[in-house]
Amino acid sequence: MRVVSGIQPTGNLHLGNYLGAIRNWVRMQDDMGERAQAAEDGSAEKNAQCLFFLADLHAISMPHDPAELRRATLEMAAALVACGIDPSRSVLFNQAQVHAHAELQWLLNGTARMGWLNRMTQFKDKSGKNREGASVALFTYPVLQAADVLLYQATHVPVGEDQKQHLELARDIAQKFNNDFASEDAPVFTLPEPISPPQAARIMSLRDGSKKMSKSDPSEMSRIELADDPDTVMKKIKKAKTDPEPLPSEEKGLEDRPEALNLVTIYAALTDKSVDDVLSDFGGEGFGKFKPALGEVLVETLRPISERFTGLLEDREALDAILARGAAQARQIAVPTLDATYKALGL
Ligand code: ADP
Ligand code: NA
């Protein structure tokens, strides 16, 4: 069992990134560790493993600033390690260091059909009205995504709703390639199965409950950043927008109160409780009581993360070493597949 998953490098990481994305990876890693431990010696699950990569190659499909991309890649790597991705248990690397990703994409471009890519709804969404001005990379990046997982013979790929179509494409490419260029008993590529990522919370802005918490919000008070110190966290929670009503005792009482619902959702996600469970503890209380409690839980969760995060960002050598080691491990798995692909194509 081998799970492969990528994440876009992004800077100014915040609580939404942690609860909505990064924490899921830590959970997948831990789940994989448990499976490996429980598996019989000699069974396939004994080697259960996660490969996590920073999708820096994908970033060039959109206009980007090189220095900013490098910074965001390092920042995301630091955040992943700070949040619990253990480079000795999972393979953690950035795509650009493993040249096989870009190479395999080219090789798979011969198999992918124009018609298949034309059907990808994400290209339509991301290119918008400016189809002619979009980069070729934006059009073909689902083929890079196929390369990302096929390169490692991934058996399982976590995909949300928006990525289902791209995994289908990866399977179609693998199947057609195996069909056209390999014998039935010696396929070059494994067809990866989709798995649903653990349910993730959607965290809203602390200043406006109708907007997602986001790095691009001009107000820093709208988000808790992973690097925020305890005083800053407490201050942001204290100033978070709310309403004068006390908390209800059930979630349906928060229907028209997005800011209140958001704060309770954050508390629930951090403590692994349901919103109803949190409300059964805090129902009837006002925010004068709830906010300090939320602030404390946040500080407790974020303190070790922000310490490790800022520590790693200051120790560039350690961070480079983690990524270099991950890339070396990734190459070991990737190169045999890449070689087999060249060979199958008569190259
Ligand atoms: P931002 O919205 O700040 O630009 P990105 O788009 O770079 O963040 O998202 C990186 C990852 O974090 C994605 O997997 C995304 O789904 C997740 N994410 C970002 N913001 C939130 C949020 N407010 N709530 C939950 N998940 C989020
Ligand atoms: Na975004």
Layout of helices and strands, plus pairs?
Blueprint: E1 2-7, H1 15-38, E2 49-54, H2 56-59, H3 66-83, E3 91-94, H4 100-109, H5 114-118, H6 121-127, H7 136-150, E4 156-158, H8 164-181, E5 193-195, H9 230-239, H10 258-271, H11 275-282, H12 287-314, H13 316-344
Parallel strand pairs: 1-2, 2-3, 4-5
Helix pairs in contact: 3-12, 4-7, 4-13, 7-8, 9-12, 10-11, 10-12
This protein binds adenosine-5'-diphosphate (ADP) and sodium ion.
Residues 8, 10, 16-17, 20-21, 202-203, 212-216 line the site of adenosine-5'-diphosphate.
GO biological process, one term: tryptophanyl-tRNA aminoacylation
Keywords: Aminoacyl-tRNA synthetase, ATP-binding, Cytoplasm, Ligase, Nucleotide-binding, Protein biosynthesis
Catalytic activity: tRNA(Trp) + L-tryptophan + ATP = L-tryptophyl-tRNA(Trp) + AMP + diphosphate + H(+)
Whole-number total of structural domains: 2
Please identify the top-level CATH class of the largest domain.
Answer: Alpha Beta
Which small-molecule ligands are present, each listed once? adenosine-5'-diphosphate, sodium ion
Look at the structure and name the CATH superfamily of the largest domain: HUPs
**What proportion of the residues is helical, as a percent range?**
40-55%
**Mean pLDDT reading:** 95
How many helices? 13
Organism: Qipengyuania nanhaisediminis
Protein name: Tryptophan--tRNA ligase
Main location: cytoplasm
Subcellular location: Cytoplasm
Concise description?
This is Tryptophan--tRNA ligase. This protein has helices at 15-38, 56-59, 66-83, 100-109, 114-118, 121-127, 136-150, 164-181, 230-239, 258-271, 275-282, 287-314, 316-344, and strands spanning 2-7, 49-54, 91-94, 156-158, 193-195.
